[in-house]
Amino acid sequence: MKVFIETYGCTFNQADSEIMAGVLRENSIELVDNPDDADAIIVNTCYVKLPTESKVINRIKRLQQQYPQKQIIVGGCMVEVDPKKLDNIGPNCSWIGPHQLNKTADVVKSAVAGDVVREFGFSDEPKVCVPKIRQDPYVHVIQICEGCLGACTYCCTRFARGHLNSYPIADIVAEARDAIEDGCVEIQLTAQDTSAFGKDTGERLSDLIKEVANLDGDFKVRVGMMHPKNIGDDLDDLIEAFKLPKVYDFIHLPIQSGSDKVLREMRRNHTVEDYKKIVYRFKEEIPDITVATDIIIGYPTETEEDFMQTADLIREIKFNLIHLSKYQDREGAISSSLENISFDEMKRRSKYLSDIKFGIIEEENKVLKDMELEALVVGKGSKGGFIAKTNSYIPVVLKEANLGEFIRVHIDETTGTYLIGHKID
User: Fold this and answer.
1) pLDDT score at 383
2) Is residue 296 a contact partner of residue 327, using CB atoms and an 8 Å limit?
3) How distant is the alpha carbon of residue 342 from its chain centre?
4) Which of 15, 48, 118, 279 measures 20 to 30 Å from 311, CA to CA?
5) Structure confidence at residue 246 (pLDDT)
6) Do 275 and 253 contact (CB within 8 A), yes or no?
7) Are the CB atoms for 231 and 204 separated by under 8 Å?
8) d(Cα 12, Cα 142) in Å, to the nearest integer?
9) Whether the model pTM is above 0.90
10) Is the separation of the CB atoms in 380 and 386 below 8 Å?
């Protein structure tokens, strides 16, 4: 029996696919790299944004047409968020909900035998210290918790991932240690919100980072997205954890809007000043830190004044990385009942912020030209060569390098999205 797994979405979803692959291998089911060779195809869906929803729906439809004799199994957030639509587009598809990964082999076997099996619903089944097959032999992703404490009005992911379920620090450290001994050079700590880690168990993210970063071996730790409202009184200890040499100088801290009014209407439960306090404390203590953020353009209640406050915040903080998303309704989200801003106005606002974004990042990167930096080679480039990450997690494109090695690079050129350099012998 052979299975092909196709994954969409975030790092957490990619880790779910690695668990599904591990469960299949444990049950002597072969994994293949091409759907043509498979008896069953698993589509691990993402549902966070409308374009991704459209992509996975079209893919599920196309696979059913292209492979009428193969079994199509749908996993991921769509199973929990929009089961009615999923049933309409794939009435003969089996399902594996994101909380039912331990049943992957059973679902595959039943589907190949001709039965439609749908495993979904919530569970506290742990996703740490379980069988996994890494997609990248040098990068190990650890899910430190699942679910969140938020009720953001625009979000549907929380309906798929459920309440917060943090995993024990001891188990996470054990998995990290095994991965490092297996040759991994980057440990990614991921969650829907890493700063929520331990709020349900009494443990703290700062302690987790310190324990992982103090393990023996040559590796780097990347900490995933943190919701500003959940950092709370852990800020000072978090900064100390990020100062450790094995932790990337990188924080992903979504703001979503520079307007306090819009933040209230989004139910973000933090203010712009709360956010700035966190960012400036990190920058004060770690001057080279890369600050990444997410911004939603054109939330239904966003006025021109709100929008300009967001633009002003971007100019003030000078983010190193900005994920801009045009607002779109999501299944079940509270904001979907509001009247949307016009397409033309959304397009104008998007271009305005994009121009600011690329101007800032280009200027910030220019400072690095002709510098020599430490970097870790983490992957191959899509157009050839290699990609290394600096200590500040800025990508550097190299012609020659070896995967998984720590090197020094000379920065030859800079762009608005990445650096170009060469390895220093």
Assistant:
1) 84
2) yes
3) 29
4) 48
5) 98
6) yes
7) no
8) 8
9) yes
10) yes
Please state, in angstroms and as integers, the Cα–Cα distance from residue 402 to each residue in 163, 261, 375, following that order: 41, 49, 12
CA proximity to 126, closest of 102, 103, 162: 102
Span 14-19, average pLDDT: 97
pLDDT classification of 318: cutoffs 50, 70, 90:
very high
Side-chain-side CA neighbours of 317 within 13 Å: the count stands at 30
Q: Is 38 exposed, middle or buried (0-12, 13-18, 19+ CB in 10 A)?
A: buried
Taking only the tens place, the pLDDT of each residue in 155-183 is 999 889 999 999 999 999 999 999 999 99
3-state secondary structure the chain: CEEEEEECCCHHHHHHHHHHHHHHHHCCCEECCCHHHCCEEEEEECCCCHHHHHHHHHHHHHHHHHCCCCEEEEEEHHHHHCHHHHHHHCCCCEEECCCCHHHHHHHHHHHHCCCCCEECCCCCCCCCCCCCCCCCCCEEEEECEECECCCCCCCCHHHHHCECEECCHHHHHHHHHHHHHCCCCEEEEECCCHHHCCCCCCCCHHHHHHHHHCCCCCCEEEECCCCHHHCHHHHHHHHHHHCCCCECCEEECCCECCCHHHHHHHCCCCCHHHHHHHHHHHHHHCCCCEEEEEEEECCCCCCHHHHHHHHHHHHHHCCCEEEEEECCCCCCCHHHHCCCCCHHHHHHHHHHHHHHHHHHHHHHHHCCCCCEEEEEEEEECECECEEEEECCCCEEEECCCCCCCEEEEEEEEECCCCEEEEECC
Q: pLDDT tens across 237-294, in order?
A: 999 999 999 999 999 999 999 999 999 999 999 999 999 999 999 999 999 999 999 9
Task: Name the residue type at position 415.
Answer: T
Distance CA 59, CA 163 (A): 29
Encode pLDDT of 210-232 as tens digits. Answer: 999 999 999 999 999 999 999 98
What radius of gyration, in Å, describes the C-alpha atoms of the chain? 22
**Whole-number Å distance between alpha carbons of 321 and 324:** 10
Question: What is the C-alpha to C-alpha distance for residues 70 and 12, in angstroms, rounded to an integer?
Answer: 27
Dist. CA 314–CA 354, nearest whole Å: 11
Quick: pLDDT tens for 93-105: 999 999 999 999 9
The two tokens of residue 374 are 């430490």
